[in-house]
Amino acid sequence: MDRIIKAISEDGFVSISVISSKDISERARVFHNASPVVTAALGRTLSAASIIGSSLKKDGASLTVRIDGGGPAGIILVVSDYEGNVRGYVSNPDADVPKRADGKLNVGGVVGNDGLLSIIKDFGAKEPYTGATALVSGEIAEDFAAYFASSEQVPTACAFGVLVDRDRSVLAAGGYIVQLLPGAPNELIDRVEKNVEVTGAVTDVLKTGGAEALLESIMLGFAPKIIECLNVEYRCTCSRERFLAAVLSLDKSELDDMKTAGEPIEVCCQFCDAKYVFEPAEL
């Protein structure tokens, strides 16, 4: 099962959240029949949203991430609950672009960088908190780092990756968010950056050593103390009752037209592709 590990340095100045999200990314790929590069883009966003959502710490709270970079993939929308369970979709899951010069999937090319990364935190009271920042590269991790720097003023380093096999299945996925806490001396930035450079591609570490190995590599020399471990999954909250309520919220004239037509109505969930059929008599 996928999971998040959270830790803090011995001196209390550096916090980190690491996620292993192979199953989450694979379920998303299967649900949406996504191309390899879209699988990578959506998987990275699911990983980031899961970590951030798990920090909300209030029953019923939710996090919504929306990325619209103007690229072929269209809009990426991901929702996380307060426990880090996520669901998501992309407008054009079969979008594709040539690989980068180094042979890697061109996530930035399929997402685009002419647009915004928006985050909505809904705690169920009053107006939800909304923050947005311009996309930097469309590669996802850099864009989330920019969001934290501009919208929350928190020095942040993050990396997310999805390793896709030749048959399009996900071999490894996940990443991390590491942040300097208030009062941290500036020299800690150099130490974190060095560890990030030495660690390299997160999927290589996750494939061989899992989330624990990734955490140890990024926090080398910081004597990290694990403070929380969470099991997370791809979890859709759709139901027949919810979709029936949505259908019944249509204008009466539309409902009358459906009844007159006498044909069943089929509704499909955008997150998990589940289909619900409603007979005219139900309406």
Q: Would you tell me the overall average pLDDT?
A: 93
Specify the CATH architecture of the largest domain: 3-Layer(bab) Sandwich
The CATH superfamily label of the largest domain reads: Hsp33 domain
Strand content: 25-35%
Question: What is the total tally of β strands?
Answer: 12
* Main sheet characteristics: 5 strands, antiparallel
Please give the share of residues in helix: 25-40%
Shape: globular
The value of Rg in angstroms is: 20 Å
How would you describe this structure to a colleague?
This protein is of the alpha+beta class. Helices cover 33% and strands 28% of the residues. The protein has two domains: 3-231, Hsp33 domain (3-Layer(bab) Sandwich), CATH 3.55.30; 240-278, no CATH class. The chain is built from eight helices and twelve strands. The longest helix has 18 residues, at 36-53. The mean pLDDT is 93.
Which structural traits does this protein have?
283 residues, alpha+beta, Hsp33 domain, 2 domains, 5-stranded antiparallel sheet, 8 helices, globular
